[in-house]
UniProtKB/TrEMBL annotation, chains A, B:
Mg(2+) binds at residues 84, 86, 88. This is Phosphoribosyl-AMP cyclohydrolase. Catalyzes the hydrolysis of the adenine ring of phosphoribosyl-AMP. It comes from Nocardioides daeguensis. Pathway: Amino-acid biosynthesis; L-histidine biosynthesis; L-histidine from 5-phospho-alpha-D-ribose 1-diphosphate: step 3/9. NCBIfam families: PRK00051.1. Binds 1 zinc ion per subunit. Its cofactor is Zn(2+); Mg(2+). The keyword Transport does not apply.
Amino acid sequence: MEPVTSLPTEIADRLKRTPDGLVPAVVQQHDTGEVLMLAWMDDTALHRTLTTGRATYWSRSRNEYWVKGETSGNPQLVKEVRLDCDGDTLLVKVDQVGVACHTGARTCFDHGLLDA
Amino acid sequence: MEPVTSLPTEIADRLKRTPDGLVPAVVQQHDTGEVLMLAWMDDTALHRTLTTGRATYWSRSRNEYWVKGETSGNPQLVKEVRLDCDGDTLLVKVDQVGVACHTGARTCFDHGLLDA
Protein backbone atom coordinates (compact mmCIF):
# COMPACT_ATOMS: atom_id res chain seq x y z
CA MET A 1 0.00 0.00 0.00
CA GLU A 2 1.05 3.54 -0.74
CA PRO A 3 1.52 5.74 2.30
CA VAL A 4 -1.16 8.41 2.69
CA THR A 5 0.44 11.53 1.30
CA SER A 6 -2.63 13.75 1.14
CA LEU A 7 -5.76 14.44 3.11
CA PRO A 8 -8.07 11.38 3.24
CA THR A 9 -11.05 11.69 0.91
CA GLU A 10 -13.55 11.23 3.74
CA ILE A 11 -12.23 14.43 5.33
CA ALA A 12 -11.59 16.37 2.10
CA ASP A 13 -15.16 15.71 0.94
CA ARG A 14 -16.55 17.39 4.06
CA LEU A 15 -14.58 20.65 3.70
CA LYS A 16 -16.25 23.79 2.41
CA ARG A 17 -13.45 26.05 1.28
CA THR A 18 -13.21 29.73 0.36
CA PRO A 19 -12.67 30.50 -3.34
CA ASP A 20 -8.94 30.46 -2.45
CA GLY A 21 -9.24 26.86 -1.19
CA LEU A 22 -8.89 27.75 2.48
CA VAL A 23 -10.74 27.03 5.70
CA PRO A 24 -10.41 29.24 8.80
CA ALA A 25 -8.92 27.50 11.83
CA VAL A 26 -9.71 28.72 15.33
CA VAL A 27 -6.75 27.86 17.55
CA GLN A 28 -7.45 27.21 21.22
CA GLN A 29 -5.25 26.28 24.18
CA HIS A 30 -6.54 22.80 25.02
CA ASP A 31 -6.62 23.08 28.81
CA THR A 32 -7.33 26.72 29.66
CA GLY A 33 -9.70 27.31 26.74
CA GLU A 34 -7.94 30.53 25.68
CA VAL A 35 -8.58 31.40 22.04
CA LEU A 36 -5.05 32.04 20.80
CA MET A 37 -5.47 33.12 17.18
CA LEU A 38 -7.21 32.48 13.89
CA ALA A 39 -5.27 31.10 10.95
CA TRP A 40 -6.04 29.44 7.59
CA MET A 41 -5.52 25.95 6.26
CA ASP A 42 -5.74 24.35 2.86
CA ASP A 43 -6.01 20.57 2.46
CA THR A 44 -2.25 20.09 2.67
CA ALA A 45 -1.87 22.21 5.80
CA LEU A 46 -4.69 20.27 7.46
CA HIS A 47 -3.12 16.97 6.44
CA ARG A 48 0.27 18.03 7.82
CA THR A 49 -1.35 19.25 11.04
CA LEU A 50 -3.14 15.93 11.53
CA THR A 51 -0.16 13.73 10.68
CA THR A 52 2.77 15.65 12.19
CA GLY A 53 1.13 16.91 15.37
CA ARG A 54 2.49 20.41 14.68
CA ALA A 55 -0.02 23.06 13.72
CA THR A 56 0.65 24.06 10.11
CA TYR A 57 -1.13 26.86 8.27
CA TRP A 58 -1.24 28.57 4.92
CA SER A 59 0.11 32.10 5.20
CA ARG A 60 -2.07 34.37 3.07
CA SER A 61 0.45 37.20 3.32
CA ARG A 62 3.54 35.16 2.46
CA ASN A 63 1.81 32.62 0.19
CA GLU A 64 3.55 29.68 1.80
CA TYR A 65 3.07 26.94 4.36
CA TRP A 66 3.84 27.99 7.86
CA VAL A 67 4.72 25.53 10.61
CA LYS A 68 3.84 27.59 13.65
CA GLY A 69 6.92 28.08 15.82
CA GLU A 70 9.45 27.03 13.19
CA THR A 71 11.03 30.49 13.22
CA SER A 72 9.62 31.89 16.48
CA GLY A 73 10.43 28.85 18.62
CA ASN A 74 6.83 28.80 19.87
CA PRO A 75 5.23 25.73 18.30
CA GLN A 76 1.70 24.48 18.77
CA LEU A 77 1.48 20.81 19.74
CA VAL A 78 -1.80 19.50 18.37
CA LYS A 79 -4.17 17.77 20.78
CA GLU A 80 -7.22 17.46 18.53
CA VAL A 81 -8.79 18.94 15.41
CA ARG A 82 -12.53 19.34 14.90
CA LEU A 83 -14.61 20.37 11.88
CA ASP A 84 -17.81 22.30 12.46
CA CYS A 85 -21.35 21.26 11.56
CA ASP A 86 -21.31 22.77 8.09
CA GLY A 87 -17.71 21.93 7.22
CA ASP A 88 -16.40 25.46 6.83
CA THR A 89 -14.46 26.04 10.07
CA LEU A 90 -11.79 24.09 11.95
CA LEU A 91 -11.13 24.13 15.69
CA VAL A 92 -7.55 23.20 16.52
CA LYS A 93 -6.87 22.46 20.17
CA VAL A 94 -3.18 22.78 20.95
CA ASP A 95 -0.62 23.07 23.65
CA GLN A 96 0.95 26.44 22.85
CA VAL A 97 4.62 26.60 23.77
CA GLY A 98 5.39 30.16 24.88
CA VAL A 99 3.27 32.82 23.23
CA ALA A 100 0.97 32.63 20.22
CA CYS A 101 1.14 36.23 19.01
CA HIS A 102 3.93 37.81 16.99
CA THR A 103 3.66 40.85 19.29
CA GLY A 104 4.85 38.74 22.22
CA ALA A 105 1.41 38.58 23.82
CA ARG A 106 0.04 35.20 24.89
CA THR A 107 -2.91 35.46 22.49
CA CYS A 108 -3.64 37.66 19.48
CA PHE A 109 -6.66 39.10 21.32
CA ASP A 110 -4.96 40.25 24.55
CA HIS A 111 -4.90 43.95 23.72
CA GLY A 112 -7.95 44.30 21.51
CA LEU A 113 -10.92 45.01 23.81
CA LEU A 114 -13.50 47.09 21.92
CA ASP A 115 -15.79 49.60 23.57
CA ALA A 116 -19.30 50.11 22.31
CA MET B 1 -25.19 65.90 19.06
CA GLU B 2 -26.35 63.20 16.69
CA PRO B 3 -26.61 59.76 18.21
CA VAL B 4 -23.96 57.31 16.98
CA THR B 5 -25.74 55.30 14.32
CA SER B 6 -22.74 53.52 12.84
CA LEU B 7 -19.50 51.98 13.94
CA PRO B 8 -17.12 54.56 15.47
CA THR B 9 -14.31 55.55 13.11
CA GLU B 10 -11.63 54.54 15.61
CA ILE B 11 -12.89 50.95 15.41
CA ALA B 12 -13.78 50.93 11.70
CA ASP B 13 -10.29 52.15 10.80
CA ARG B 14 -8.73 49.13 12.52
CA LEU B 15 -10.77 46.48 10.68
CA LYS B 16 -9.24 44.47 7.86
CA ARG B 17 -12.17 43.06 5.93
CA THR B 18 -12.54 40.38 3.27
CA PRO B 19 -13.34 41.59 -0.26
CA ASP B 20 -17.00 41.10 0.78
CA GLY B 21 -16.55 43.55 3.66
CA LEU B 22 -16.68 40.91 6.37
CA VAL B 23 -14.59 39.91 9.39
CA PRO B 24 -14.76 36.42 10.93
CA ALA B 25 -16.01 36.33 14.52
CA VAL B 26 -15.00 33.51 16.84
CA VAL B 27 -17.78 33.07 19.38
CA GLN B 28 -16.84 31.78 22.81
CA GLN B 29 -18.82 31.02 25.96
CA HIS B 30 -17.40 33.59 28.37
CA ASP B 31 -17.07 31.41 31.49
CA THR B 32 -16.37 27.86 30.30
CA GLY B 33 -14.21 28.89 27.33
CA GLU B 34 -16.11 26.64 24.90
CA VAL B 35 -15.73 27.76 21.30
CA LEU B 36 -19.35 27.78 20.16
CA MET B 37 -19.20 28.72 16.46
CA LEU B 38 -17.66 30.99 13.86
CA ALA B 39 -19.77 33.63 12.17
CA TRP B 40 -19.19 36.77 10.10
CA MET B 41 -19.74 40.46 10.78
CA ASP B 42 -19.71 43.57 8.67
CA ASP B 43 -19.41 47.02 10.24
CA THR B 44 -23.14 47.26 10.91
CA ALA B 45 -23.34 43.83 12.54
CA LEU B 46 -20.39 44.71 14.76
CA HIS B 47 -21.95 48.03 15.67
CA ARG B 48 -25.26 46.36 16.55
CA THR B 49 -23.45 43.69 18.57
CA LEU B 50 -21.57 46.32 20.57
CA THR B 51 -24.56 48.59 21.16
CA THR B 52 -27.43 46.11 21.67
CA GLY B 53 -25.59 43.44 23.65
CA ARG B 54 -27.07 40.76 21.36
CA ALA B 55 -24.67 39.02 19.01
CA THR B 56 -25.60 40.00 15.45
CA TYR B 57 -24.00 38.56 12.33
CA TRP B 58 -24.14 38.81 8.57
CA SER B 59 -25.53 35.60 7.10
CA ARG B 60 -23.55 34.79 3.96
CA SER B 61 -26.11 32.17 2.89
CA ARG B 62 -29.20 34.32 3.40
CA ASN B 63 -27.58 37.69 2.66
CA GLU B 64 -29.17 39.36 5.66
CA TYR B 65 -28.46 40.42 9.21
CA TRP B 66 -29.01 37.69 11.73
CA VAL B 67 -29.66 38.40 15.40
CA LYS B 68 -28.59 35.08 16.90
CA GLY B 69 -31.54 33.51 18.70
CA GLU B 70 -34.22 35.70 17.16
CA THR B 71 -35.86 32.69 15.53
CA SER B 72 -34.26 29.83 17.51
CA GLY B 73 -34.87 31.33 20.94
CA ASN B 74 -31.19 30.80 21.81
CA PRO B 75 -29.65 34.28 21.91
CA GLN B 76 -26.08 35.18 22.73
CA LEU B 77 -25.72 37.85 25.41
CA VAL B 78 -22.52 39.74 24.68
CA LYS B 79 -19.96 40.03 27.48
CA GLU B 80 -17.06 41.51 25.51
CA VAL B 81 -15.73 41.86 21.98
CA ARG B 82 -12.05 41.85 21.07
CA LEU B 83 -10.19 42.55 17.83
CA ASP B 84 -6.99 40.65 17.13
CA CYS B 85 -3.50 42.07 16.65
CA ASP B 86 -3.80 42.54 12.90
CA GLY B 87 -7.42 43.63 12.83
CA ASP B 88 -8.84 40.77 10.78
CA THR B 89 -10.57 38.58 13.40
CA LEU B 90 -13.06 39.28 16.17
CA LEU B 91 -13.47 37.31 19.41
CA VAL B 92 -16.98 37.62 20.84
CA LYS B 93 -17.40 36.38 24.39
CA VAL B 94 -21.02 35.63 25.13
CA ASP B 95 -23.41 33.94 27.47
CA GLN B 96 -25.09 31.43 25.16
CA VAL B 97 -28.70 30.76 26.13
CA GLY B 98 -29.44 27.10 25.31
CA VAL B 99 -27.49 25.71 22.39
CA ALA B 100 -25.40 27.47 19.75
CA CYS B 101 -25.72 24.98 16.89
CA HIS B 102 -28.67 24.61 14.53
CA THR B 103 -28.30 20.83 14.93
CA GLY B 104 -29.25 21.12 18.60
CA ALA B 105 -25.71 20.50 19.82
CA ARG B 106 -24.20 22.88 22.37
CA THR B 107 -21.44 23.94 19.98
CA CYS B 108 -20.94 23.60 16.23
CA PHE B 109 -17.84 21.49 16.88
CA ASP B 110 -19.33 18.81 19.16
CA HIS B 111 -19.52 16.04 16.57
CA GLY B 112 -16.62 16.94 14.29
CA LEU B 113 -13.54 15.21 15.70
CA LEU B 114 -11.11 14.44 12.85
CA ASP B 115 -8.75 11.46 12.82
CA ALA B 116 -5.34 11.73 11.23
